[in-house]
Batch of 2 targets.
Target 1
Amino acid sequence: MTPDKVHEILKAKHAQAVSAFDPNPKHPSIKIAPEFWRVVAKTLRDDCGLDYLVSLTAVDRAAELEAIYTLEVMDGARCPIHVRVLVPRDNPLIATVEDIWRTADWHEREAWDLMGITFVGHHNLVRILCAEDWEGHPLRKDYKSPDTYHGIKNNVT
Amino acid sequence: MMTPYTLVDWVLGDGAGWIARFIGAVLVWAVPITGFVSFVGLLSIWLERKISAHIQCRLGPMEVGYHGALQTVADGVKLLAKEDLVPADADRFLFAFAPILAFAGTVVGFAVVPFGPGLIVADLDIGIFYLAAVGSLEAIGVIAAGWASNNKWSLFGSVRAATQVVSYEIPMGLAFVTIAALAGTLSMSGIVDQQQGWIANWFLFRNPFTWIAFIIYYIAALAECKRAPFDLPEAESELVSGFHTEYSGMRFAIFFLAEYAQMYVVSAVAVVLFLGGWYSGIAPLDAAVGTGVAGKLVGAGIIVTKSFLLVCVQMWLRWTLPRIRLDQMLYLCMKILMPFGMLTLVGSTMWEYYFPTPEIAKVGGGWTGNTVMTGVVVAIIGTLSLIVYVRSVIRSTPSLRAASNP
Amino acid sequence: MNAPHIPKAFAASDVRSEEMLLNMGPQHPSTHGVFRVVIRTDGEIVIDSESHVGYLHRCFEKHCESVSFLQSVLYTDRLDYLTSMGNNLAFSLGVERLFTDLVIPERAEHIRVICAELNRIASHLLAIGTYGMDIGAITPFLYCFRDREKILSIFESICGQRLNYNYVRPGGVAYDIDDSMIAAIKDFCKYFRPKAQEYDDLLSNNDIFVRRTANVGVLSKELALSYGVTGPCLRGSGVKRDLRRDLPYSIYSRFDFEIPVGTGERGTLGDCYDRYMVRVREMIESLRIVEQAVSQIPDGPFKTDQIKGKLRPPKGESFIRVENSRGELGFYIISDGKDVAYRVKCRAPSFHNISLLTDISRGAMIADMVAIIGSLDIVMGEVDR
Amino acid sequence: MDWPTIMWWVFAAVTLIPALMIVLSKDIVRLAFWLLASLSGIAGLYVLLGADFLGFAQILVYIGGIMVLILFGIMMTNRDAVLMRRGENTGGTTVVGLLIASVSALGLLKVISDTKWKEVPPVDMPATTSPIGEALLTDYVLPFELVSILLLVVLCGAAYIARRRAEEN
């Protein structure tokens, strides 16, 4: 499953969902509009055979937050394709894909915990790495470390 | 009728009053027994450390005393000095009482364990039965410890201990009965006396079935002592430390001591029942054992050495085998040891009926055709099964051998 | 999706007792770090469990956004602290991938492969040893440590560290190796090949060990794929996938080695025994790679001379994965042309491997729970980052 | 006073004081351990009577088997404050209880005082084990076997009931 082939299939099935395609052989990526993400994800798994969610990377792009889903065929050709979903920073909502790739469960929790992207429909969207009562999303670029946490002083900054 | 004061009578004569006899019994037995239990504990713990170390390519304790011989004493002092912690919400009375119960349950077993010819606290007519009865007392202490700790892991440990000890009493009892049926007595010294003479007179070699009975007994004894592969009640990788997770300092040390004392008790019983007790297995030498003070001491040396050898086997097993699972533990007891135990009992009595041991052999005569035949049968069957087993293991070895030769 | 494994003896769940909530961890000897599972049990049988991670979270990704690329390598050591060479290698390759025309010297590539494979052996030795300990066999652990020490001593002579090496860096390696070190590695290969048989004798063919691991924690191929499980856990389920062969990085395509997969030889395909056996066999294959690499190591520089002064990769994004001893370790690196990364994401294999614990432990016993966690071979430094 | 008499008093105390504590104790686990002490006292009395086999059978069966099972059962129940404690007495139940207890106590006292107790001079009794064995396998072989079968039926029945309930769930 080459990136071009994936692009073709997506173009044919969800023409308006694909907003950009970068066939760079070292780092192929497809940009998907957030509102179509769930149906596209189903197509990616079922029609393109991308059954392996390698990684979910959340990136802070100043005005927007980006979720990069790295997908691959587990049993066969190896060429990861990066699917980008960009959402506005003030209302970061993306549909969950935890039932499509089960590993997305913990990855979405991590992305919510550290970057603050809300995955709509996730069954248990709670913090995974930070403490349950932690405030803020540490990987956002405008994040300020708290001065104290339960009386423990932050003397790094 | 029981004769609880064998040695006291021997020292004081029959004419002494009951107060003198009572005090004599306490002095003559309680103090040495406690001392012996402590000695057994210290020596076993040191042995365990050295044996485990040498099995694992290490040296073990080397600093305190010759090859670390005094390390255990130093550790005991350290444990004495430790703070005595009781968890919050624990049942304080039971928590304090449990180690004592476990230790007492073990020490009462020493009452019928002979230390040599005539050197026995109480040579009860029902010696083996007594052992079977008090064998489970330690479990009560363990159960109390796990319950009183107010810790779920400890509770799991004590529930496992209860399951294990109650189940393994049955195969152990079957092995006892097998020997009792052959010996015609339940008395410990009575059983030993029948094994006088050459090594073939030991109950282990009396007929092919006693060999199985010995294996059954030893496996059940491992389970009663909660030693690997039956250390489920402690299971440090599963239950953290099982029933004694919350114990520290001296209370922990008492549990420890009880465990090692029980290892000695079950080994000594195995020696008495199957391995000729205080007899060396060499007929001319045995004639002298038990006569006079020197003879008694030689006998004592023989039985204690044999027992410690069996204790070492327990340690060897512990540091070699992984732990079995709860259901496998019960499977082994209910579906393997118990049927085989019953088979052994029936088979052994049948064998004795059809090939009766001549009276001369029973009282310590020489080799008899029967015992020699038994030995040959056991040797052939044992060797064959060993060969079959080893071959099957080698055949079923995964292809690592092939993979390691490119 | 997958039928949860139920021990045969309890298939009918004969007698039910009251349910109990058991808190396993964060400090438990068999959770391999500060990992917590809340188990709902019926007697000793696990009805359900919930994993809690994050106790070791130390903001690796945030750190990488505030220190230079070269300093970040140091933090990768602490991810999977048993395979630091592999972590260094993955991050270095990721940074190198951002450049367009960077050439890594041959000698450096060989040293990287040797170190990564030796480290894989050391890591698998620890995995096997601790696994034996989880099952209750303490002795194999010390045998494994005896041999692991030899590898650590080689590493110490190479880079001065025994655990967190910080040795493989973008552009090459930190120091050259000399003939005495090559001789030590050759000696180790000679020494270790027969020793590997010892583990078979100690554990693999032990009847109790087989009974404790075979048919326990069966991980079906479908479940493994869905959870993105990689490494020995995936290969244990019968999937022949190894990035060293399928998506070769560095110079792995030149070496001749096998990819061991689970066969279900003692039980069901994908059980704990298969995962364990894959690790045992992988050590031999790693040894073969080391032998080949050592025998053909060329002379020359040990790091590239194209990087001068501060390491400033061009603007861009790169994603790299390497086959680490626990699975595919990936780094998504975004650079905005500065000497500090804009964003680094670590795709940790243990994070995927442990997330399926709930699914494969249902219906097992508490003792099996320990066996299952041990067979997944997690390192919490990597899960929590 | 000779030592058997003293030991008799000791064992009597070990039997009766824990028995009293069983009635007075409110914690179920403590109660089980008092029961343990009481049963050991009875075993001691048996031994004192020369029935040493019976005495250790008491320990083997009651303490080693039944007590462990009782404790096992108690532990398997939830550690619930209400379950673990017995109910508080109200005035009415106390009165009724006292009434019943005194009536039965009077009856018992009457029986004890009316019985003509045989006084046997202490004798060195012979071993009890082989007579028990012989009696069980000759004169009493039928009752012995019947009891065994009854126990077997009870065992199977218990397993069956437990299994049925699990399936219904």
Target 2
Amino acid sequence: MLSDVLLIAGKDLRVELRSRIALNQVVPFALLVLVLFGFALDADSSTLATFTPGLYWVAVVLAALLAVHRSVSLEDGDGADEGLLMSGLHPASVFLGKAVALIAELLLLALVLLGGVLILYGAPVDDVTLLLLTTVAAVIGVGAAGTLYGALLSGQRARETILPILLLPVLAPVVIGASRAFGDAMGSVATDGWSWLLSLTGFAMLYLAVGSVAHGALMEEA
Amino acid sequence: MTHVGYLVAGWGSAFLIIGIYTWVLIQRGNRLAKRVPVEKQRWMSARDEAERIGDA
Amino acid sequence: MSVVSLRNIVVLLGQFPALSGATLEVQAGESVLLQGPNGAGKSTLLRLCAGLQRVERGDGSILGHDLHRERRIIRRRVGLVGHRTMLYDDLTTGENLRFWARAVRATPEELDQAIERMQIDRRLMDVPTRQLSAGQRRRTALAVAAARRPELWLLDEPHAGLDQAGRDIVDSLITDATAAGATVLVASHELDRVRPVVDRQVTVAGGLILEGADAV
Amino acid sequence: MTTTQEVVETGRFDTATGSRTTRMLGWALIVGLIVLLWLAFVATDPDIRIDAASGDEIGQFDAVRLIYVHVPMAIVAYTAFTVTAIGSVMVLLRRSVWWDLVAGASAEIGAVASALTLITGSIWGRPIWNTYWRWDDVRLMTTLVLFMLALGYLAVRRLEGSAESRARRAAIVGILLVINSIIVNRSVEWWASQTLHQQSTITDAAIEDLTLFTFMYAIVFGLAGYVWLLIKGFRVAWLERQNERFGLVEALEQRRAEAERTDAVNAAVDTGTGDQS
């Protein structure tokens, strides 16, 4: 089971390493979003610092949409999705493997962006542990939900347009929770960031579980 | 009566939207019913529930 | 034992009945050529036998497993080589082969034998799959299928794109598979080439199986 | 239950999705609507109270009459999505076509009702809260996200694929619809610790007897309207499904006829007069 998960994750990451889509397109896109927020919200750095948590997570979620799309589309190249169906790998392994690869990519993206907001927006950091743990928990949630809803749309021509409609409302609680926890960690909001971190962890666990169970039904042929 | 404008807007939008939805639904039904044989239109009979997805 | 057993199978692609009541019995160790015009339903028939198509009407079993309820098991036990090679364009040939071999639980030795069998040039191992020619891709796909040692081979125009040597390999693959007790269904337009290596041929047309004459 | 055969023979029902049940319910709804409008606009008094301290008139005045449409819509929306979730579970457990169609029809009504909940709520909020929209209100936010989730669900129902795979995908999204809205509700509640919403309008002691009755009546009326729309929606969905399958026999015959032509060609091949390979 674990080796199957790693096999799929390794395959996805290797494809990413070869094509460099996430690194060369998704990360720059997310950074551009940050820069545009800066333009839109005026150069007043105190405003930017206040809104950093929210802007940061909106940028992450937008970029995650692209990453999810890429994660799904690399399966429908030359019938590879059918190959996986015929391989006899357990659907839960395939789901977890794809989720692990996506989460790894998103984690890299989130860390680059974190550096971006710290430099560009000049956001202060009070609690590094909370900041990093929140990032990990939220990214796992986004990656798991993204893989699940991505699998739902595999092989669909209208995928690009339906994915945001489906995924963004689902990710709304992650944006709320992660922004609050970041707010606490950056000292801009008086809230208990650790309890938000706990709820983000719950969200991530829930979607990993639901995805593992549901993926078998979604992988079935159209 | 106070707030007449709000009342008209609120109740009016409810009537309008539900009205349009109902009308579209009935039109769709009428159009489809002409193309489906009558014996397939046994409304809510017990047999419908027995059908499973994938049955012929 | 009947490896392929189909009775009045109807398969719909959208609204279109690709198979309109196909009936076919194939015994273990038999090799059968499916011939017929384009759009006759040959590919759909092979995909059906691979457990990739939902059956609209009719009954059937593949390797003793029911086509309605046990398609997951069927998929694991057959080797399908179709128009789509199921390879990742961004990976190299070697990476593709190793990934799929591990996914289908083939040992490295089985994979090596399969590569040998298909005579895949070892120098191609580090070349991205997207740069391969159609014939090289086909050989790679055949090697993946061979590595899993399927009990039922489903070959959809296996000669397409292959050179003379590749075609000979496919022919010997069919004879060797049946000699080893496996069953082969092969759809092809290369009748003169395939007829000598199969036990019998059937004609597929209009989504039906028209039983043909026994092989010459 | 009237069969369609009888309907056609007697010509008693003019619409294709109509039956005795829907027809009678429909007339009851029209009468009920007139009663509702009379109750809501004529019989009940506006909400005017006298502030004990200043002696000023306070309350919602006539804007309270918007509640008679807003709250039933909210209850219909939540009922509809609950039915969708139940239907989705039944689809996954029993592969039931019937429940798949019910779930889809119910979600459509739920989307309409939740949109109207938001619209009427905003219109009511403007004079009462002095704003169309409150970001810190749990019910507003939950309903909004629920509406967007419902749009996603309806989009999934229209994806390509066989009826079976569409039903399965929709069922998974339908179950997640409820899970997600619970998560959203919890997180917004936590996020916005305060709410402007009247905690419970119904149990408010100041509410008059007739107002309370009108309120209850409006909810029952809304649910009856939901049932009528659900029956209609189910029948339309059923017709759509039948329409997809209709013509299969004909299509099969056409398809099989191709085989005979090929047979003739084959005979020619065997006698060496032609080659089609």
